Every structure is written in structure tokens, then in C-alpha cells.
From TrEMBL:
<feature type="domain" description="Orn/DAP/Arg decarboxylase 2 N-terminal">
    <location>
        <begin position="70"/>
        <end position="316"/>
    </location>
</feature>
<dbReference type="InterPro" id="IPR022644">
    <property type="entry name" value="De-COase2_N"/>
</dbReference>
<dbReference type="InterPro" id="IPR000183">
    <property type="entry name" value="Orn/DAP/Arg_de-COase"/>
</dbReference>
<feature type="domain" description="Orn/DAP/Arg decarboxylase 2 C-terminal">
    <location>
        <begin position="62"/>
        <end position="414"/>
    </location>
</feature>
<protein>
    <submittedName>
        <fullName>Pyridoxal-dependent decarboxylase, exosortase A system-associated</fullName>
    </submittedName>
</protein>
<dbReference type="Pfam" id="PF00278">
    <property type="entry name" value="Orn_DAP_Arg_deC"/>
</dbReference>
<dbReference type="InterPro" id="IPR029066">
    <property type="entry name" value="PLP-binding_barrel"/>
</dbReference>
<comment type="similarity">
    <text>Belongs to the Orn/Lys/Arg decarboxylase class-II family.</text>
</comment>
<dbReference type="InterPro" id="IPR022643">
    <property type="entry name" value="De-COase2_C"/>
</dbReference>
<dbReference type="InterPro" id="IPR009006">
    <property type="entry name" value="Ala_racemase/Decarboxylase_C"/>
</dbReference>
<dbReference type="Pfam" id="PF02784">
    <property type="entry name" value="Orn_Arg_deC_N"/>
</dbReference>
<keyword id="KW-0663">Pyridoxal phosphate</keyword>
<dbReference type="InterPro" id="IPR017530">
    <property type="entry name" value="DCO2ase_PEP1"/>
</dbReference>
């Protein structure tokens, strides 16, 4: 996740009893000022005014995703990466069926992390042979779904290999399998680490040769390797170093494979800016590095390998906005609170409670104000409607004065938003999601 350092939860937990530790920050608009332009005082998303979108949704809060921004982002990533590198979308970032249908036309593949995501991915036009299924703890039922459908199972353990063999034998098919490797290195700069040291993800690289030697080729069609070692990284140099180390590792492991490597998933981890101090990831050096690796190592040594970069948040995160309405406004001992009808039950990450080390304000704006609104700005805390101090969407945010009924937009809400939030907490209705 975006931040490093102590979390809000931790800060509060360690504060003097009854005193909430201060968390500072001011609001700032969306990092790309062209993404969601204002029409007068009103934010537009996909060219539609926020107040009209609220009317269309029928209720607040709700999420809106701009398909043009998603397409634009995919095009930008493709332009930055060398030709021949395939792009896979990690469905976990945002599994909304309408968005998946849109992405299906733009991606080379989809990556899923559960039987539920698998069924959604299979509903799209992406062929099963271009769908991969990664993640620990796949049940025999999920493996059965995946193998029957012909998707690539990315093995996370030796026991999973046994299960795959058993399921393939029972179904009378050859399972398409890649091995997820837990590398001996961690990726510097990742907001979330998924590789290096002991991990529930993948098979430790030093155990891989022995496991490859045990692959039952009658039941298992071994395709290649997957290394996904980190997420939310804004440091191009770290990503370059990880990609180089990954290729080096895979070239060594390929010598133990029971078949030529036809699939090489180098992971991704491309981040997006969430906090004011974050800088957008520079794709150019990553693309140059990949081009060099392709030319000097991958193509000569693994000529049959499809090379895949797997991205979630970078493709959809910045295209989403969470819109919520002010339901109360109050002063408390010098602080002005805007209380909105949304909160952490829909947008946990923006409150700093989804793996953030330090809570920092996400970019936000007043998306629509009633006619005749006061011209001044003010500094406010934007809090959600849940009865917990964790439900803090914006701390000391400078915003145009907002009144009850006005709309607040929280940006960077397209990835790990609704489905990464505790929607059942306090029993509020589920928000709508619109794709425009
Ligand atoms: C295997 C795998 N692929 C893809 C992703 C997506 O990461 P991101 O959305 O940061 O691109 C993750 C994230 O945890 C993952 O574990």
C-alpha cells in the first residue's frame, strides 16, 4: 500500500489513553488534473456531472469508474513496454463485471485469485488459456473448476501439485500449470511485499528444482514460472532490479523444468500515487530494462516463452472515484467535521486501514455544491458514518465550504475499493458502482 511508517490504527493504539494521536494532512486534487475536469463548481467523471451521476445511481454513496481513463492507461502502459510483452489484468484489483468486460477487450489475459473471480473471468471474452489462477489456499473445488475450464493454475505449494494431479486424473484432462516461485529477494519500495523470506506465496526458489523433478507430466502440462514479489511500487529502479533478478532466477530454474518454458510471468507491482508526496511511476526506464532483458536473456534462452506483466491497481486505480454526500456538519473544540454517508465500509484504503503504514489523505474534492454556496475554503475533517474513530476519510483537509447535501469525491478509488472493504460492518446498504 502507499505509505510506510506507523499506521493510524497503531498510532491510535499507542496514544495516551483517550487521546487520539494527531494525523495531519491536507487535501489535494487528483494527481492528473485532466482526468476529472470541473464544469463550473461541479466535478465531471467521464464527461458527466457528479450531481447527474448521483441522480443516475439513485442513492449515495457510490463508485464511478471512467472507462476512457482505463483504456488510456492501458494504452500508455503498452506504449511504455516492449512489443511482445503481454499484459494481464489482476481481477482482484476490481472485479466489477462491466469493467472486466471492458478490460477483456484490452488485455492479453486475466489473473484470478478465487473460484468466484474465475467464473467472472470465464464470463468475459478472454479465452481460458489466457486466464491464470494464483493465490494460496486453493481448495480442491476451486482447482477442479480451474482445471475443468482449462485455465493455468499457478502452483503455490508442493501439496497443491498433488491436488492438481489428483483432480486432473479424476477429470481425465491434463492440467495447465505454472509454478509460482518465492524468490530469495524482496522488492525494495513495494508497499506490499509478497516475495522474499518466508512466504505463504509460491514455492521457495531453493525447493523448486526438486519439485520440478516431481511434476507428473502425464497429468500436468508444465508451462513455466510466475514471480510476483511486490505491489504498489513507485520506484522504477527497484522494479527494474527485481525484473533483472527474476529473469536471472528463472533462467537457472528453467534448467530443471520438465518441458520448455512457454510462460514467464514477471509480476508487476506498478503503483499509483495516493498521497501528496507520491510521484507517478516512470514507465520508460522499466520498458527499456525489459527490452534489454528480452533481447539479451529471455528470447535467446527461453525462445518459446510468452512474457507477461501482471497489473491491477495501475490500470484501474486512478480511473475510479468514490462519491459520498455530506449528512452532517459540526464543530467540536475547534475542529469542523463533515460527516458523510460513506466511509471505511466502502473505501477502507482511503482511511489508511488497508495495509497502510502511515495514514495519509487520499486526494479528494467537493464534487458538487448547492447553488449559492459560500465562496470560501475551510479546513475540515471528513469522517464517515461509522461509529468508530477509524472512519476518517480526510484529516485537516482544505476544501471549498461544503454543506449538508453536497457531494464529496474521494479519488484513486478504482482499485481495492469496494471489494477490499468490510461492507457488512454496521449494516449499511451496499453502494452502487457505475462504469461511464
Ligand atoms: C499474484 C498477484 N498478481 C497481481 C497482483 C496485483 O497487484 P497490483 O494490483 O498492485 O498490481 C497481486 C497483488 O497482491 C498478486 O498477489
Amino acid at each position: 500500500m502507499p505509505d510506510t511508517g506507523g499506521s493510524l490504527m497503531a498510532a491510535r493504539a499507542t496514544s495516551v489513553a483517550g487521546v487520539v494521536a494527531p494525523v495531519t494532512g491536507t487535501a489535494f486534487p487528483h494527481p492528473d488534473p485532466t482526468a476529472f475536469p470541473f464544469d463550473g463548481d461541479t466535478l465531471t467523471i467521464g464527461g458527466v456531472r457528479a450531481d447527474l451521476l448521483a441522480a443516475r445511481a439513485g442513492s449515495t454513496p457510490f463508485f464511478v469508474y471512467d472507462r476512457t481513463l482505463v483504456s488510456r492507461r492501458v494504452a500508455r502502459v503498452r506504449a511504455g513496454l516492449p512489443e511482445g510483452v503481454e499484459l494481464s489484468y489482476a481481477v482482484k484489483a476490481n472485479p466489477l463485471p462491466a469493467l472486466l468486460a471492458h478490460l477483456a477487450g484490452l488485455m492479453d489475459g486475466l489473473d484470478v485469485a478465487s473460484g468466484g473471480e474465475l467464473l467472472r473471468a470465464l464470463d468475459t471474452t478472454v479465452p481460458a488459456s489466457r486466464i491464470s489462477f494464483a493465490g494460496p489456499g486453493k481448495t480442491t473445488g476451486e482447482l477442479t473448476q480451474a482445471i475443468a475450464a482449462g485455465v493455468t493454475v499457478e502452483l503455490e505449494s508442493a501439496l497443491e501439485l498433488e491436488r492438481v494431479r489428483e483432480v486432473a486424473g479424476r477429470l481425465g484432462v491434463r492440467a495447465r500449470v505454472a509454478l509460482r516461485v518465492n524468490p530469495p529477494f524482496a522488492v525494495r519500495g513495494s508497499g506490499m511485499r509478497l516475495g522474499g523470506g518466508p512466504q505463504q506465496f509460491g514455492v521457495d526458489s531453493e525447493q523448486v528444482p526438486e519439485l520440478l523433478g516431481r511434476i507428473p507430466t502425464a497429468e500436468v502440462d508444465f508451462l513455466g514460472f510466475h514471480v510476483f514479489a511486490g505491489s504498489q511500487n513507485l520506484d522504477a529502479d527497484s522494479i527494474r532490479a527485481a525484473q533483472r533478478a527474476t529473469v536471472e532466477l528463472v533462467l537457472k530454474l528453467a534448467g530443471f523444468a520438465p518441458a520448455p518454458v512457454r510462460y514467464l510471468n514477471l509480476g508487476g507491482g506498478f503503483g499509483i500515487p495516493y498521497a501528496r508526496r507520491d510521484r507517478a511511476l516512470d514507465l520508460a526506464p522499466i520498458g527499456e530494462n525489459l527490452a534489454e532483458l528480452l533481447e539479451t536473456s529471455i528470447r535467446p534462452r527461453l525462445p518459446q516463452a510468452r512474457v507477461v506483466i501482471e497489473l491491477g491497481r495501475h490500470l484501474v486505480g486512478e480511473a475510479g472515484v468514490y462519491l459520498t454526500r455530506v449528512v452532517d456538519r459540526k464543530e467540536s473544540r475547534g475542529t469542523t467535521f463533515l460527516v458523510v454517508d460513506g466511509g471505511l465500509h466502502h473505501q477502507l484504503a482511503a482511511t489508511g486501514n488497508f495495509g497502510s503504514a502511515i495514514r495519509r489523505n487520499y486526494p479528494m474534492a467537493v464534487a458538487h455544491r448547492a447553488p449559492g454556496a459560500p465562496p470560501e475554503t475551510e479546513t475540515v475533517d471528513v469522517v464517515g458514518c461509522l461509529c468508530t474513530p477509524l472512519d476518517l476519510l480526510g484529516k485537516a483537509v482544505e476544501l471549498p465550504s461544503a454543506r449538508v447535501g453536497d457531494l464529496i469525491a474521494v479519488f484513486q478509488a478504482g482499485a481495492y475499493g469496494l471489494t477490499a472493504s468490510p461492507t457488512a460492518f454496521l449494516g449499511h446498504p451496499a453502494p452502487r458502482e457505475l462504469l461511464v
